[in-house]
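Let us practice reading a record.
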Amino acid sequence: MTAAAEGGRRVHLQYPPIDGFWTWDIKRNRVYGDANLSDYFGLTLEEFSHGAPLERCMESIEADDRLRVHVAIRRAVERRSSFREVCKVRSEKMGLRKILAVGQCYVDNLGEAALYPGWFVDLTQEEDTEAASLREIHLHIKQAKEISQSIGHNLLFYLLDNAQEEVQLRLGGGSRRRKSS
C-alpha cells in the first residue's frame, strides 16, 4: 500500500471496503479466490478453490482493458513489485462492474516470483455518483449562465460556457468548438 510521510510518521492511503481477495500461485499459474471474486469474474467457487488459470480470470476483463492489465501484471511480476489497476469486469451474476485491483508480487527463497496476493474494490457506484454530480453541476452552470447573460456580464457568461462544455465532455457529451469572447 502506498504511504506518505506526515510529520515524521507514515500515513496510509485509505481505500474503500474490500470486496474480494485472491492469491495467484505464479509458478503453478493457479488463482485462488473467495466467493466475491467468483461472482465478479464469473468463475465458480469450486474453480477458485482448486485454482483457476490466470488466463481464465483475464477473460472476464473487458477487451479494452485486458492488454493494459496483462502488461501491468507482467511488469509487476518481472519487477517483483506492486500492482494497482482500474478495469472493467463482466460476469453473468454482477453484470459490468468497474473495479480497482491491488496486488503485490512476493518471491521465494531463490528470489523468484512465487505468490501474488491481492484484493479488489468495486468502484461502479462511485462512478455513478460522479456522473450524477456532474449532471447537477451542469444544471447549476446553466442557471448561472442565464443570470450572467441577463445582467450583461459577458465575460462571466463566456467563462461559464467553457465550464459547461468541460462538464459535457466529462459526461461524454462530445466536443464543441470554443467560442471567443
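A brief commentary: Strands lie at 3-6, 9-12, 20-25, 30-33, 82-91, 95-104, 106-107, 113-122.
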